[in-house]
Automatic annotation (TrEMBL):
InterPro entries: ArsR-like_HTH, HTH_ArsR_DNA-bd_dom, Metal_resp_trans_reg, WH-like_DNA-bd_sf, WH_DNA-bd_sf. This is Metalloregulator ArsR/SmtB family transcription factor. Signal peptide: none annotated. Keywords: DNA-binding, Transcription, Transcription regulation. CDD domains: HTH_ARSR. It comes from Achromobacter denitrificans. Residues 1-95 form the HTH arsR-type domain. Pfam families: HTH_20.
Amino acid sequence: MNKDSAVTIFESLASGVRLDIFRLLVRAAPHGCVAGQIAIELGIPPTNLSFHLKALTQAQLLTVEQEGRFMRYRANIELMDELVNYLTAECCSGVSAPPISDATEDA
């Protein structure tokens, strides 16, 4: 993952509605949910939902598959794993951080 990809993902998740959608789909993994089910569970009007689903799909946070006349959305958990790995790749530069209790005593 590169910086531009990470920024795109964070921008997409900066919306509370989109974050709720992504978290719902993580809980529904691996089967995902159809759009109507997402709208009902989160109380989002269908027109608003389609806008947010499109943004999440363009950021590659969701995959979508047509099932008859329905669209099934799934969280791209592998991409989220890549993001977490990107964020923590240089954690502490290989040096163990002091325990939190030690850090607060020095303050």
